[in-house]
Amino acid sequence: MVQRSRSANAISSQRGLLCFLLLILLSLPLAAAETLEAEVYMAGVHESTWQFSGSSAICELKHEIPQFGLARFYRLTGEELGFDITSYQPVPEQVEAVLRESSPEWEHAPPDPLEQMVVVASGLKPITLDRRPAGWLLSSLAKGQIGSFDLLDWNDSRKQMQIRLSPVNFQRPYRAFKRCLTQLSSKGFESIRQTTVHFSLDAHSLDEASRERLRELADYIKADSDITAVRIAGHADDQGEKSYNLRLSARRAKSVQEELIHLGVKSSLLSSRHYGESRPKLRGRTERARAANRRVEIELAH
């Protein structure tokens, strides 16, 4: 009887163990179902492109994230490195995201474990980074890692979104971007906010030095999206009739305005005034004073 009881207990224990294992196995699909579904926005290996562009005013490195938007590293003259993403559709509400590295399949080096919290804003420019996180992200791509913004889907909190920057085809445009940064002027908005172009006696045509100055100014205006107005004011010296000098100052202002438009500045930003000899830069009848007064002044506004 004792022997039979022991056998029955052993069988019962085995059955209990099997039931326990079966419950674990049955629970696995449920756990998998509860795992957050991830929607990944990232350029494939064969479609990933990076494009560099640069001028005397700005250096840019752009990358398309299919079905999501356009990513951009940039540095404006006199400013620090920045990064932003312009989305194809407006983001409906502000959320938080984690910026992290992720290793592609072919990369054996482990990713940097550092993670940074960033704000994803509503609107058409949801992600904007200043110098430090932008530099970290740029360095990640330079060493072959994927830069990933991980967040919950604002339309469905059961889903996770991953907005990713591919390192494929990154190196060559990145080298051009770095060269551009070393050649970028240190002049910022305050140093270029007011620009003056001078003219010869009784002339309204631009010389080569003036054209070059306006070319640099136009590059800056096109690069700085915060500029809201470009005010042009024409002036003349006191030689000749006042009415003639007023018309001459108008022609000078028009020459500058037309040149800026020719260089790609939006005409909607430009406004023009002319004052003849009524607002001299320097008073007096010396040649030095008169040369200073034959001018067009251009003022930028944020």
Radius of gyration: 32 Å
Give me the count of strands.
14
- Sheet with the most strands? 5 strands, mixed
Mean pLDDT reading: 89
Class per helix and strand makeup? alpha+beta
Order of helices and strands: HEEEEEEEEHEEHHEHEHEHE
Number of helices: 7
Q: What characteristic shape results from the CA principal axes? A: elongated
**Widest sheet: strand order?**
1-10-9-6-7
**Distance, first to last CA:** 98 Å
The amount of beta strand, in percent, is: 25-35%
The level of helicity is: 25-40%
Description:
With 302 residues, the chain is of the alpha+beta class. It has helices spanning 2-34, 131-142, 171-183, 189-192, 208-223, 242-262, 287-293; strands at 37-41, 50-54, 58-65, 69-76, 82-87, 95-102, 116-120, 127-129, 146-152, 159-165, 194-198, 229-234, 270-274, 295-301.
Any key phrases for this structure?
five-stranded antiparallel beta sheet; single chain; five-stranded mixed beta sheet; 7 helices; 302 residues
Helix and strand topology:
Layout: H1 2-34, E1 37-41, E2 50-54, E3 58-65, E4 69-76, E5 82-87, E6 95-102, E7 116-120, E8 127-129, H2 131-142, E9 146-152, E10 159-165, H3 171-183, H4 189-192, E11 194-198, H5 208-223, E12 229-234, H6 242-262, E13 270-274, H7 287-293, E14 295-301
Parallel strand pairs: 1-10, 12-13
Antiparallel strand pairs: 2-3, 3-4, 4-5, 5-8, 6-7, 6-9, 9-10, 11-14, 12-14
Q: Would you kindly provide a brief summary of this structure?
A:
With 302 residues, the protein is of the alpha+beta class. The chain has helices at residues 2-34, 131-142, 171-183, 189-192, 208-223, 242-262, 287-293, and strands spanning 37-41, 50-54, 58-65, 69-76, 82-87, 95-102, 116-120, 127-129, 146-152, 159-165, 194-198, 229-234, 270-274, 295-301.
